[in-house]
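Why should sequence recovery work at all? Because a backbone constrains its sequence more than one might expect. Tight turns favour small or flexible residues, buried strands favour hydrophobic ones, and helices have their own preferences. The token representation captures these environments compactly. In the example below, the structure is given first.
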């Protein structure tokens, strides 16, 4: 294609993108090389005059204003109700985001994997809790190493055998490891049975020389996504009841239970009302996903809109050969799902058509997409989606104002 052809196509793309975004900027013709040297400019952190239209797609875009308001809203809620936030990082895997959460008052971070703990610990953060019991030699050794560098680091256990292994590993390194007993709260994937088994495990931890019984965890994962606020309230109360009875028995037995940890974005204002937990492990509220929006809130029964949708996958229309549908460059590898939603076009259905292809399908012929047009998609599952990208492009309107790396994405260090 001639240089003139390239320029005219670029102008067309820029114009259609600007139209969609409601932007009337006319600078595209003078900035034809912006995308070409994007990487080197990002490396030099020269973000001036980088716009969404310059980004390679599919990519992840964070709306800074909505994101900041989500963080503040949760921080204010915690201050007002007295519950603490130990923010779950699995949803964002970003030290930039964790730093902002801690600055707003979070008492620490919860992590699903040892690798996430390492990432956060090496960034200098304290109060990290691993919420998935370590059982492999590899993970146990790394957990003990984390406790050695930071006495505020802790892990959960739901099995006497794991507690024994951790005690042996901690003794070998002469370390005292904060340990939280994970009690079943309605989610069969983890948690020792409430009552006698949980109490016995708490006693075992307490009497282990190199373990420090720190508290009790109960994560009611089924309650988190229960639709209708009142139903969610009932489900939370019943799922947490056994765990809270165990806390009472442990305290009567003279065991130290400093923290009672659990909770989620879906139950954040239920957990603070129930007064059982001392801290919330909520994570998704920073970005919100489409599935969470459907559960309904306390104020708005149809949409859980306490927190705004701050994260989108930006994609480009790459083919438009049939009426009422077009192809975008986000498919299986971008974890596109039929439950995702197109920003500003709730009428559009999303289909997956292969590794690098997605389909948008709609009925309104007056609202056709054009090739080159940019589309923003709200993901249905944040953890999975962020796991396939290397960075967040942080934006204000059309402007890219920051770029945050997502945790190391290759090799054993990921796990
Ligand atoms: C152990 C644990 N705590 C808390 C959460 C809550 O996270 P969210 O607020 O994203 O629902 C999760 C989510 O899977 C979890 O696994």
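From this structural description, the recovered sequence reads:
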């Amino acid at each position: 294609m001639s240089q003139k052809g390239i320029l005219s196509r670029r102008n067309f793309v820029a114009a259609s993108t600007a139209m969609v975004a409601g932007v009337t900027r006319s600078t595209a013709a003078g900035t034809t090389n912006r995308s070409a040297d994007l990487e080197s400019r990002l490396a030099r952190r020269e973000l001036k005059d980088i716009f969404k239209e310059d980004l390679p797609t599919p990519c992840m875009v964070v709306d800074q204003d909505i994101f900041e308001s989500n963080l503040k809203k949760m921080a204010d809620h915690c201050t007002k109700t007295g519950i603490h936030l130990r923010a779950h990082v699995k949803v964002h895997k970003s030290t930039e985001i964790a730093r902002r959460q801690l600055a707003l008052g979070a008492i620490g971070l919860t992590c699903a994997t040892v690798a996430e703990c390492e990432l956060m610990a090496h960034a200098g953060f304290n109060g990290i809790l691993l919420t998935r019991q370590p059982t492999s030699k590899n993970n146990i050794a790394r957990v003990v190493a984390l406790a050695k560098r930071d006495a505020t680091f802790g892990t959960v256990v739901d099995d006497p055998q794991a507690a024994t292994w951790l005690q042996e590993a901690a003794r070998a390194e002469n370390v005292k490891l904060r340990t939280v007993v994970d009690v079943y709260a309605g989610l069969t994937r983890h948690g020792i049975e409430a009552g006698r088994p949980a109490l016995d495990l708490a006693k075992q931890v307490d009497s282990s020389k190199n373990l420090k019984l720190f508290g009790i965890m109960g994560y009611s994962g089924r309650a988190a996504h229960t639709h209708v606020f009142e139903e969610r309230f009932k489900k939370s109360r019943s799922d947490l009841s056994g765990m809270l009875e165990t806390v009472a028995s442990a305290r009567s037995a003279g065991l130290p239970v400093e923290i009672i940890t659990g909770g989620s974005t879906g139950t954040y204002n239920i957990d603070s009302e129930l007064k059982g937990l001392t801290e919330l492990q909520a994570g998704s509220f920073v970005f919100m996903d489409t599935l969470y929006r459907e559960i309904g809130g306390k104020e708005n029964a149809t949409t859980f809109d306490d927190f705004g949708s701050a994260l989108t996958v930006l994609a480009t229309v790459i083919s438009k050969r049939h009426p009422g549908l077009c192809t975008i460059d986000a498919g299986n590898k971008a974890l596109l799902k039929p439950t995702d939603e197109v920003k500003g076009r709730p009428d559009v259905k999303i289909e997956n058509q292969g590794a690098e292809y997605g389909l948008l399908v709609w009925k309104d012929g007056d609202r056709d997409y054009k090739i080159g047009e940019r589309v923003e998609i709200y993901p249905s599952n944040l953890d999975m989606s962020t796991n396939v990208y290397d960075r967040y492009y942080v934006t204000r309107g059309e402007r890219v104002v920051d770029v945050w790396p997502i945790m190391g994405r290759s090799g054993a260090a990921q796990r």
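A few observations help interpret the result. The domain at 52-63+306-405 is CATH 2.40.37.20 (Lyase, Ornithine Decarboxylase; Chain A, domain 1).
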